[in-house]
Fold these 2 entries.
Entry 1:
Amino acid sequence: MEQFLIGGGKKLTGEYELTGAKNAVLPILAATIVTGNESIIESCPNLSDVQTMFTILRELGCKITQDEDKVIINTEPINSHTIPEHLMREMRSSVFLMGPMIARCGKVTLSYPGGCEIGLRPIDIHLSALRKLGVTIKEAHGFLECTADRLTGCRILLDFPSVGATENVMMAATAAEGETRIINPAKEPEIIDLQDYLNACGADIKGAGTGEILIRGKKSYHRAEHKVIPDRIEGGTILAAVAMTGGSIILRNAIPEHMSMTLSKLREAGCRIREGNDFVIMTAPEKLNAMDTLITQPYPGFPTDMQSQFLTLMTIAQGTSIITETIFESRFKYVEELVKMGARIKVDGRTAVVTGVDKLTGARVVSKDLRGGASLVLAGLGAEGETIVENICHIDRGYDKFELALRKIGAEIRRETIQDKT
Ligand code: EPZ
């Protein structure tokens, strides 16, 4: 087991360069299966979720070589159609391997991804959309056996703009005969990045980022090179860490447009922000303003992946904030850990009421999920005294050596390994 030891109270200042986006590179790595060719993916972040995706792709027969943040992947030699169950459990978002595997091989077997720390994470929207394209899906004993003799383009209306379901349909539809229209798709920047990658392989996809995506199926796809967009959630997390300590930062390799709502809420909290075409400069106030209402929404609304970081900021703001989580049904598990640090928070279902206190105090806390865990680190950075954050494997899923990144901008944080108690 590994944990972070954090000495709170240091102002974070300096420069920070964003890495490639986890939630863009994972579907793009899955999409390389569609081409049966070589893809060069640049700005691939070094995260445990990415390593898990590499393991799954290698188990399917793909060849992968890595040179720092450049990945060369050849998906021609696929020789298996089953996603290993233990790897599905390790990373539930491998569910979006269904689309590319069905497009390329006409079949795939995988275990039900199941829920995780933030919710039940059903995949009903994925399954009903794939069935409309002509996929036969047998569900038995916790497994999904998917087959498709042929895929036929059609109009698909998503009940909810699910990111993963949108990605699965886009990738499956690359092999469908004719035109597929996705109505009410997710509009996240990562969807646009997936469209750009697939079009670089010879696909004909339009409309990502809007209310309707059009995919015209093609018979074959070719070699492609693609640079992954910067991670807007990593960027928001770093800005929140700086704001937690009253510091200042230059965030480089950023796309401010992808972070609009996060930047707007940081301004509302009293941060001074200047946006350039590939950077953000922010200076935080000594004391943050509370947020009357903060509601998570699908993009371009306030991102659910920034909810815990913002709630953490509000624990030391002046006044009372009301934060509502509309995307996932149990994304407040980190709150009880913040209360151990002196935060005053009341959770009622999907709404948290946060009454700002002067300072948090360091404590031993336990990370339970990726973004909630990262938020406990932010709390420790702003707290008085030492904080220990246990179970940091969750954090490694989405942040590359988080402690080294934070040390670069003045944080007092280090990783240590402890013997498993069991
Ligand atoms: C993606 O998850 C991201 N993960 C999540 O980031 C992110 O929080 C989420 O989109 C929302 O933006 C990756 O891209 C790898 P959804 P995904 O399908 O695709 C319900 C992080 O911290 N739903 O948009 O799983 C679902 O239960 C992670 O980086 C159904 O009901 O999200 C949830 O309540 C966490 N049926 C809501 O929709 C379905 O078939 C949003 O899910 C699919 C989803």
Entry 2:
Amino acid sequence: MALTTRDLTPRIGSEIITDIDTLLGGGEAQAIRDILEQRGVVVFRDLDIDDAQQVAIARTLGECVEGEGEDGIYKITFDEKVNARAKYLQGSMFWHVDGSLQPYPNLAALLRPVSLAATGGDTEFCNTYAAYDDLPEEDKRAIADLRAIHSAESSQYYVRPEMSYEEICFWQQSPTKSCPIVWTHRSGRKSLVLGASADYVEGVSVEESRALLAKLRDWATQPQYVYRHKWRMGDLVIWSNTGTMHRVLPYAADSGRLMHRTILAGEEPLH
Ligand code: OGA
Ligand code: MN
């Protein structure tokens, strides 16, 4: 079965209608990668795959990052009994790019619900290529050479605004990273690199940094660039981590929400 696609919004998100065997066979993998790059997010409904199939599908699309979770599956939850890093994962409620601190941010992530919350827990994605493309020319010029320092500490302030000295020291052990605000990809296309890990803009005052980062985030997360996914059991969602930001809408830690994530290794450096 070939692929049938349906746009979920004009600027971001496509549903792909296909079957498990087509995905496992890998014959459409390049086509899926192309749709992912163009549309930012792809959604498969009623696929009902298991962990092994999720990893096998991921392997047709790129190189799976081992070392995160077990057998290519990482458990996304706010429940500390299920994942000891659940507190850290609460940072995912704020717009972010996964792995922005790494030299090669992940290419993409595959996410599938194992158990859903009765309320909350939709996931939103915004298209940072489209947001860049639509910026007024003078804004493009103003940010062309700007860089932001990203840190784990910055993301944590969103979760814990009044961190203790010990907590701050702990998060400051992770090295910070300078990233361009405008990412020029190998394709020549440009996207915005923002999110909760973006601490401040280099060479700019604290006030100007905060204002500029908020202004750009507000711009990039306007409704026309956002797709909101309402999860159903059986779904598989893949997002391009190099051309989108995402966040999960709040849900209770004891809601039972559990998602299984597989990530694809980055193929383009962000430096
Ligand atoms: C992630 C993430 C969002 C969600 O897995 O990187 O941000 O919906 N997850 O749980
Ligand atoms: Mn994330």
